[in-house]
Amino acid sequence: MRTRIKICGITRAADARVACLAGADALGFVFFAPSPRNVAPEVVREILGSLPPFVTSVGLFVDPDPEFVRRTLAVARVDLLQFHGDESPQFCGSFGVPFIKAVRMRPEVDLLEYARRFRSARGLLLDTYVSGIQGGTGIRFDWGLIPADFPLPIVLSGGLDPDNVAEAVRQARPWAVDVSSGVEAAKGVKDPQRILDFIAGVRDADA
User: Residue 54: left if φ>0, alpha if ψ -120 to 50, beta else—which one?
Assistant: First the structure.
């Protein structure tokens, strides 16, 4: 199996181009004003217009007003939605676009219950629980919390970087990995070499 790779928090066309050339399968765009990686839909529209084929675009939202999601999609029509708040399955599925749901991981989380509730999701993205922070923590969680034979595809996130991603893939065997701060030179600015090293780590683990 080949582990898919998503580079999240893209704010610049140059970073999108580097990620695609390096072999990323998906790019993530944050539509959440408090985030340092928040990006305007108009900027994303320009980036989407320059993407090569077969690269999935993902729009990240946190407990958004539904009209905000619709307005954003009217400008920047991404391929997949990613919800990081307390959204219901009905809300997530109400925009006519496939979605994945983020789960903030800690020992008491019942992942099988999440899978049951969000069975219409394309997968669950597992990030680290940090009080007051909705994703992008840069902190890893205990990968042993992921049940074997999980019924939905797992996107592993939370504290991944070029130094630990190979270990993460070997241990957790996710469908995909998701990285943002782990390949940055500064918040919202990607480091080309770290992107290359991250993807090389995933490929090494796959091999």
Answer: left
Residue 181 is classified by DSSP as G
Exactly one of 25, 127, 161, 178 is catalytic; name it: 127
Q: What is the pLDDT of residues 120-147, one digit of tens each?
A: 999 999 998 676 665 556 678 889 889 9
- What are the structural domains of the chain? 4-206 (3.20.20.70)
Phi then psi for residue 137, to 5 deg, are -75, -30
HSE-up of 169 (CA within 13 Å, CB side)?
26
Residue 131 backbone phi and psi in degrees, to 5: -55, 125
Of 8, 92, 161, 178, the active-site residue reads 8
Query: By C-alpha distance, which of 199, 190, 192 is closest to 9?
Result: 190
| Whole-number average pLDDT of the chain | 94
Annotated catalytic residue 20: no
Q: Is 127 helix (H, G, I), strand (E, B) or coil?
A: strand
Q: pLDDT tens digits, residue range 80-93?
A: 999 999 999 999 99
Q: Is 88 helix (H, G, I), strand (E, B) or coil?
A: coil
Q: Using an 8 Å Cβ cutoff, are 204 and 1 in contact?
A: no
**DSSP tag of 49:** T
Reply yes or no on whether 8 is catalytic: yes
